[in-house]
Amino acid sequence: MTAEQDGPEDRLRRFATIWSRAVFPVTSTSLTRPEFEERLLPLARRLSEALRARNFDAEAAGAVGAALVGTHCTDPDALARSLDCIDAYLVLYCGEDGPQEDLRTRCSRLQHAMAAGFAHALRERTLAEQEAIAQAALRAQGVVAQALHASEARFRAVFEGAAIGIGIADLEGNILEVNGALVRMFGGGEQAVRGRNVSEWTHADDAPQVWRLYEELVRGEREHYHVEKAFYRPDGTVLWTNLTVSLLRDPDGRPQYQLALMEDTTERRLLNLRLRYEATHDALTGLPNRTLFFERLEKVLAAGDGQRFGLCYLDLDGFKTINDSLGHAAGDRLLVEVADRLQSCATAPGEMVARLGGDEFVALTTGPDTHREVDELAARIMNALVAPVRIEGRELTVRGSIGIVEGPAGERSPAEVLRSADITMYRAKSAGGNRFELADPEADARAITRHGLTTALPAALERGEFFIEYQPLVHLGDGSVRGAEALVRWLHPQHGVLGPDRFIPLAEHTGLIVPLGRWVLEQSVRQVRDWRRRSGDTGPLRINVNLSPCQLTHPGLVQDTVDILERAGVTPEALCLEVTESALIGADDDLLKPLRRLAEMGVDIALDDFGTGYSNLANLRRLPVSVLKLDRSFTQSMQQFPADPVDLKIVEGIVSLAHSLDLAVTVEGVETGAQAEQLRILGCDTAQGWYYARPGPPDRLHELALVDATG
Prior knowledge:
Layout: H1 8-23, H2 33-52, H3 58-70, H4 76-94, H5 100-139, H6 142-145, H7 152-161, E1 165-170, E2 175-178, H8 180-186, H9 209-218, E3 224-232, E4 238-249, E5 255-264, H10 266-280, H11 290-303, E6 308-316, H12 319-326, H13 328-345, E7 352-357, E8 360-367, H14 370-384, E9 389-391, E10 394-396, E11 400-408, H15 414-430, E12 435-438, H16 441-462, E13 466-475, E14 481-492, E15 496-498, H17 500-510, H18 513-535, E16 542-547, H19 549-552, H20 557-568, E17 575-580, H21 581-584, H22 589-601, E18 604-610, E19 627-630, H23 645-660, E20 664-667, H24 673-682, E21 686-687, H25 698-710
Parallel strand pairs: 11-12, 14-16, 16-17, 17-18, 18-19, 19-20, 20-21
Antiparallel strand pairs: 1-2, 1-5, 3-4, 4-5, 6-8, 6-11, 7-8, 9-10, 13-14, 13-21, 14-15
Helix pairs in contact: 1-2, 1-4, 2-3, 2-5, 3-5, 4-5, 5-10, 12-13, 13-14, 16-17, 18-20
C-alpha cells in the first residue's frame, strides 16, 4: 500500500517509524526501538498538525525540539538526523493534498523553529547542571577561604573532575584557580589562563548587559548571572560559552571570590548557524530562499515611517524546454549562472535577491525613492540576462518575464505583495515575455476574481449553482420555432449570474468542462424530451448543445451521448452538437472519428462561428457536419438599409456553397426585422437572435412554440 492509499493515521505512524529508526542509534536511552517510536509518535502528530495548521505555530515546533531533549536525544547528530528526516518525509506522509510549495515552505520554517527549541532546551538542561555544580561549590566555599578545611579534598575532586570549565577569581578579577576542562577549552596551556584578569576577556560580540551584570556581582548586588559569551583563544579563534558566574561569600557573608562555570557551545552554535543557513538559503544557488525572503519582506513592510519598497518577480521564459531537452543537470547549471548574474545586479544597500523555487527569483529594494530604483533594478536584471549562457558546448539564450510591485510600506501584507507581483509577471509573460510590467490593481482584481472562480467551479457544480437558458432557433421561411440552443449560466453566490464567457475558459483550463458539459447535455436532452411530451409536434424539434475542444478529445464523448439519449428516451435526431470552426481547423482523423460516429447515429453536427477561422472551404467536404452557423460578423451590416453589397455577396456565396454540399445554414445575432428578411432572401435556413427572443427559461420557449403553432 502506498502513502497515498494509507489513511492519515497510518501515514503518521509510518513517518514516526522512519524518524525513530533514524535517531535511535544516536540516542542514550534504555528503551527499545519500538518503545522509543511510541515516544516519538505524539511529537510526529504535533508536527503534522503544525504543518497543516491555518496559521504558522513556531511554538509547537519549538516544543517538539525541546521534547527531543527530554527523551535523551541530546547528541547533535540526533538533531541533524531528525531535521533530515522531517525535511524528506514530513510533507510526503503528513501533507495530505495541500499545496506542495506552501507545505515545503512551512516545513522549512518548522525545522528552524524545532532546532531553536532543541538548542534552548539543551541550554536550559546544561544550566541546571551548572547550577547544581555552583551550589556544590557554594556549599564548599570555605575550601577557598580556609585552605585547611577538612572538605578540601572533596571540593578538589569536583573541581578537577568536572566536564565543564571552572575558574575562581578574586573580586578584582584576578584569576586564582582554573580546572583542566577550562584550560582545554582555551588551549595554549594553563599559563595562558591563570594569572590573567577577567577584564581582559572582552569580545566584540559581548552583549551590552554582560559587563553590567559582572559589576553588579562583584559589588555584592547579585548572587549570580547567566549569559552567552564569546572569548578569544590564544590562537585567535573564538570560543563560545554558556557562562554562569556566582558570588562566593566568606563565613560572615562578605563577598570574597567569584566562581565561573563555562560550557563550550562552539560546536552547537556552529551547528545552529549551519541549520539556520540551510533553512534560509537555496541549496543549489546559495541565494536566500523563500523563508528568508519572507522574513526580510515582513520587516520591510512593517517599517512604515515613510519607507517604500520595490519588488521584481522574475520567471525565466522557456526554462521547461531546456530541462526537457538538455536534462535537469544543464537546467541547474543555468539557474546557478542566472543566480550569479542577479546577485551582481542587487549590490546596493537595501537590495537583496532570492530564489523562490524552480526558475522563479525575486529582487527587493527599499528606500525613499523605490519608484525609480525598482525600474532601474528591473532594467539591470534584463540587461544581465542578455548575454547567452554557455553550457555543455551550447549557447543558451536566457529570457525572463518580470512583474514589478512598488509602494509604501505598511499598506499590504507580504502575501498580498507577492501575489500581485506573481500576477503581474504572468501578465508580462502573456504579452510575449522578455519584458517587465508594472502591477495594476484593476488587473490584479480581475486575476484574483478569475482564480476565485476557478477554485469555486468544482463545488459550484456539486451545489447545483449552474442553470440553462434557451434561445429559440427560428425557420426563416415560415417563422416557426424549430429548436433551441442551450446556454449555460452560473448563479454565483457573490457575483450573481455569470455568462459562459466568464467561466467556460476557466472550466476548459481546469478540465472541469468535461463533467460540466456532460451535465449540460443531460439537462438539455431531458428538456427537449419534456417539450415534445407537452406539445407533440408543435414544440421545438431539436436542441443545440455546444461542445468544447476538451470534450472533443475526451474518450467518453460518444458513449456519454448515447447513454444520455437512451436514458431520456430521445432519438439522436433531436440533438445537434455545435463545434467551433477553430476547433476543427487541421483536425486529423482521430479527432473527427467520434464526430463521424455521432453523425452516423443521426446526431446533427453544426460548425459554429463559421467564417472566423480562415479555414479552407474545401475542408467542408471531409468534416461530418450537417449545419453551418454563420458568424454574426458577416451579417451586422444588414441591420441597416441598404446592406453592404460585399457582405451580401459573401453570405450569398457561403449559402450557395453550403446548399450545394447539402448543409443547412443558421445565422447568429439577428437583431432587426430587416436583417431577418434580407437573410431569408439570401436563402439562409434558420436564425437566432434578440429579434426573436433573448435566452430565457424553458417555459418561455415553450410558450413561443405554442404561439407559433396556433398562429
